[in-house]
Amino acid sequence: MTHAIVARQAGGPEVLEYADVDRPIPGPGQLLVKVAAAGVNFIDTYKRSGVYKVPYPFTPGSEAAGTVEEVGEGVTAFVSGDRVATAEGHDCYAGYALVDADKALPVPDGLDDFTAAALPLQGLTAHYLINSTFKVEAGHNVLLHAGAGGVGLLLIQLLKAKGARVLTTVSTDEKEQLAREAGADHVLRYEGFPHHVRELTNGKGVDVVYDGVGRDTFDGSLSSLRVRGMLALFGAASGPVPPVDPQRLNAGGSLFLTRPTMGHYLRDEAERRWRSDEIFAAAAGGSLKVRIGARYPLSQAGQAHRDLEGRKTTGKVLLVP
Ligand code: NDP
């Protein structure tokens, strides 16, 4: 037996029950991983609340790191005892999780288990957003929202490493401090941010906005772009954006709008390894700092969701079985 978080219906954080469950058995091509820590991500809250449909009973979690305990038939790339992480797992809020071997990332020696669990999903996301969704180059002006969040703190550092000028929004003084320490050039509050962005770019607007906040920031994000700038709407922490009239992109200056998701930027082994090798190497080498803002026992998954949705967290949130 082991423990897992189980939801039997959609709802608030209270639907996340801590339950005894059977230890899973790895099928062909799978690894059984003893979870050292599972990452909490906003998408877990969308699935819990019913914004995204899932089958029940449902165990959240697509991110974890730990040690391979057993390998399924046909697995040759990993053996028992290997340390792995994943951003594409299933049912990771648990003591043991099954991970498809082709989606398992080897963890380098220089990275501890908690950092390895904290990095994959938000790190791969930050990587694809700035290297592939919009290829950021030195001198670009970039606006990103929620700069002290999990994706936000990683984005700021990776953008600064590319030589971009980084503008970011946050809601509190503590978060402002964290965004500054990560390297942001200008830290704004949400109130009136498009106006401040114009001022800071001599009226021109930014080359790209990375917006994971969604409903509350979408209009302001569009108004912050330069002519032919791009809005990468990659999440909806404040709620989903209502339907948009494409004519607004014309009026805004022949703008580009995209709604990217991680799976489409990890299309094969080569792409997955390119991105994960770069972010793991940066973290292991110390150039990319991974802030673990909070660690909760697995049994407290509901509280972790409450705090993430309540804007109380910074950096990464982990669950420890
Ligand atoms: P964060 O740690 O960034 O937490 C969300 C932050 O959003 C909050 O801390 C808060 O920061 C800000 N926020 C603004 N308005 C609200 C609101 N009304 N309710 C809650 N939070 C709000 O989370 P993650 O780093 O895990 O994820 C950030 C976004 O990225 C999410 O939308 C997520 O879905 C998305 N994402 C998308 C992926 C993709 O591939 N498309 C992959 C990974 C994440 P503040 O208080 O400073 O405003």
UniProtKB/TrEMBL annotation:
Residues 11-319 form the Enoyl reductase (ER) domain. It holds the Pfam family ADH_zinc_N. It comes from the Bacteria. SUPFAM superfamilies: GroES-like, NAD(P)-binding Rossmann-fold domains. InterPro entries: ADH-like_C (IPR013149), ADH-like_N (IPR013154), ER (IPR020843), GroES-like_sf (IPR011032), NAD(P)-bd_dom_sf (IPR036291), QOR-like (IPR047618), Quin_OxRdtase/zeta-crystal_CS (IPR002364). GO terms for cellular component: cytosol. GO terms for molecular function: mRNA 3'-UTR AU-rich region binding; NADPH binding; quinone reductase (NADPH) activity; zinc ion binding. Keywords: NADP, Oxidoreductase. This is Alcohol dehydrogenase GroES-like domain protein. It comes from Pseudarthrobacter siccitolerans. The lineage of its organism: Bacteria, Bacillati, Actinomycetota, Actinomycetes, Micrococcales.
